[in-house]
Amino acid sequence: MQMNGTTQDPAKIATVALKAFARIAASWGLSEKEAAGLADISESEWTRARTSDFAGELTQDQLLRLSAVVGIYQALELYFSEPLARSWFTQPNTDHLFGGRRPIETAIEGGLLQILAIRTYLDGLLEGA
């Protein structure tokens, strides 16, 4: 991957992305299964990915998922106070996007498109839409 005219090590990018994602997953209180599903990796790979010596790479889809999750986290932290910001993703939501289900469930089932839809939804809240 090339950024700012320099080539970035894909394994280093994966390590940084997974470290941020692990912090978010912990902040939201996600189970191992939920975190792995959100990142679209197996639970065993998620366990390995959280170690400091993980040297794997992520697919473009996985990187986009993690990037969008960071955006979701930031939007929640900006829009809501801390207790709600940390629990919103795991609480049932009656908005049409979720149909009474938890956003985490719809994100795992809907994949990258649903994760991006959630990010867009929250960006709209921030903009006052």
Key structural traits:
single chain; 129 residues; mainly alpha; two-stranded antiparallel ribbon; 6 helices; 66% helix; 3% strand
Task: Explain what the structure shows.
Helices cover 66% and strands 3% of the residues. It contains 6 helices and 2 strands, in the order ββαααααα. The chain has helices at 10-28, 32-39, 43-49, 60-79, 82-87, 103-127; strands spanning 2-3, 6-7. A two-stranded antiparallel sheet has the order 1-2. The mean pLDDT is 89.
Using the alpha-carbon principal axes, give the shape. globular
Q: Find the count of extended strands (DSSP E, 2+ residues).
A: 2
- Average pLDDT confidence is 89
- The unreliable regions are none
What share of residues is helical?
55-70%
Q: Give the CA-CA distance, first to last residue.
A: 35 Å
Strand order of the main beta sheet, please? 1-2
Please, how many helices?
6
Structural class: mainly alpha
Proportion of β residues? under 5%
Q: Nearest-angstrom radius of gyration?
A: 15 Å
How would you briefly describe this protein structure?
This protein has 6 helices and 2 strands, in the order E-E-H-H-H-H-H-H.
